Amino acid sequence: DAKTTQPPSMDCAEGRAANLPCNHSTISGNEYVYWYRQIHSQGPQYIIHGLKNNETNEMASLIITEDRKSSTLILPHATLRDTAVYYCIVRVTYGGSQGNLIFGKGTKLSVKP
Amino acid sequence: DVKVTQSSRYLVKRTGEKVFLECVQDMDHENMFWYRQDPGLGLRLIYFSYDVKMKEKGDIPEGYSVSREKKERFSLILESASTNQTSMYLCASSSWAGEYSGNTIYFGEGSWLTVV
């Protein structure tokens, strides 16, 4: 089972910031928070990941609370092409399978003109 | 940019056929994975490989096998296709991760397989 909780859907106006929350209250100290998105009929696209510090890249920012029990993905200026299902995932990245991503139901973000 | 390429985007096969799904990555990644994605069930890991000629079963390996003869190529084989294997199949790759280095899994575009 997925170890994260996300709202099923959100709307955002084009050009505005999209803030997608994720709850991961049972996260372990060695688990990273990952965000992917999936546009219909395509493979998941990696967005960003972090352990405990906030992270930023050319696509988005990731804000992780100090207790690491929740995080927020921020798309600073949403466009219509950002309409997708966004998945928040926690995972250990070493040992074992090295990659069993457990996707939950995600948040369907609809960016509207 | 990392590129994971799946050979076929859409396939239609008959029940009982042997099906090969091919995947190639261009980043010299050690790890490669095959998932299937079905509505309401999310992504499920079929097999993964952490080195040439090495393979490990994932959560749903029954009815599938894999082959990794070269580092960049990972093939998924359906020995005798059945209708319940109709799905989207996703290949992915990643570098080997140490304990304190979060690695990233990169996915291909997916292969839509219909078994009739």
Question: Would you kindly provide a written description of the structure presented here, covering whatever features stand out?
Answer:
The complex is a heterodimer of chains A (113) and B (116). In chain A, strand 6 (61-64) and strand 7 (70-75) form a beta hairpin. Chain A contains no helices and nine strands. In chain A, the strands form two sheets. Chain A has a five-stranded mixed sheet, with no helix packed on it. A four-stranded antiparallel sheet of chain A has the order 2-7-6-5, with no helix packed on it. Helix content of chain A is 0%, strand content 44%. Chain B has 116 residues and is mainly beta. Chain B has no helices and eleven strands. Chain B has strands spanning 4-6, 10-13, 19-25, 31-38, 42-49, 56-57, 64-70, 73-78, 87-94, 106-107, 111-115. In chain B, strand 5 (42-49) and strand 6 (56-57) form a beta hairpin. The radius of gyration of chain B is 14 Å and the shape is globular. The N and C termini of chain B lie far apart (36 Å). The interface between A and B is medium-sized, with 25 and 31 residues.
